Amino acid sequence: MTKILITGGTGLIGRHAAKLLCERGHTVRILSRRARPDVPLLRGLPVEYAQGDVRDPASLAPAFAGCDAAVLSHQFQNFPVENPKRNETFDAVDRAGTEHCVAAAQQAGVQRLVYISGIALGNPNPPHPGVQAKLAAERAVFESGIRAVSLRVNVVYAADDKYFPRLARAARWSPFVPIPGAGASRCTPVHVDDVARAVAYAVERTAIGGVVNVCGPDEVTWKALILAVAQAGAEGRRKLPMHIPHSLLFLAGWIGERLPTPLLSREAVVFATQFDQSCRSGVSCAEAFGFCPIGLDAGLHKTFGGGKL
């Protein structure tokens, strides 16, 4: 079977993709800044780790050596809040980091690249450094001369992600659910298992190229999604939305940018509240891979044991 390197393999998408690829009989190597990270989801699986950093080109050659394919799913810590002092920015990690990975893949003779992109690239309004960086990364991938596919992933939810489980737990004790701004931006949430499935198919079906949207079937507002997740964790108790005005969010972002370790930024507020992340055009998972991701109600039940739009 195929030997696959996964950058960002300890992150949400990376670790779930690694698990599925191992289960499908592939040999998986994970690039990590730590020599031997402890990833609970991957315990007991035959995963190999290579120490390196996409921002350091010299560290990448050993990781890519001997690999047939590479899944590029790296992102910086505390995404999408940049930390320029630590070089944790969209430009340094998404653009330059991907360009470094492409160069290493070319040198190693990798035959397949799968880039984990974002659905907002299809609706780049308002302009944002994250969109600009990922568009540049996609160009580098497609201009590499290696057979490549870019998976433009929508909002991903899972039992082990950073945000939604916290929201579900908080809903158990509070009747109010914070909604950033009006919560009117639209998205089509997708369960992490379906993202991992798309990654596996993208690795295996090398004739497929170009851009593929990885989206759930339900287009909802951010408000509807947040309330549905909260309701799933509330054991039937009704939740009430509490809108946080954009002016307060931007003030918090302005303050957050000035902390030694930024907790929020104005760009992160834009990233989280002002992008249309619908999937109204482009190639779908059904068209490219022959499967349809599960719906949001079923996904929330699978993840949290409940949830209704």
What does this protein look like?
With 309 residues, the protein is of the alpha/beta class. It has a domain at 3-157 and 190-215 and 280-294: Rossmann fold (3-Layer(aba) Sandwich), CATH 3.40.50. The chain is built from eleven helices and 13 strands. Helix 4 links the parallel strand 5 and strand 6. Helix 1 (12-23) crosses helix 6 (192-204) and helix 5 packs across helix 7. It is globular and about 55 Å long. It starts with a strand and ends in a 5-residue tail after the last helix.
DSSP strand content: 15-25%
Output mean pLDDT: 92
Q: So, the CATH homologous superfamily of the domain at 3-157 and 190-215 and 280-294?
A: NAD(P)-binding Rossmann-like Domain
Main beta sheet: strand number and arrangement? Answer: 7 strands, parallel
Overall outline: globular
Tell me the helix content. 25-40%
Main β-sheet, spatial strand arrangement: 3-2-1-4-5-6-11
Beta strands, count: 13
End-to-end distance, in Å? 41 Å
Output the number of helix runs: 11
Tell me the CATH topology of the domain at 3-157 and 190-215 and 280-294: Rossmann fold
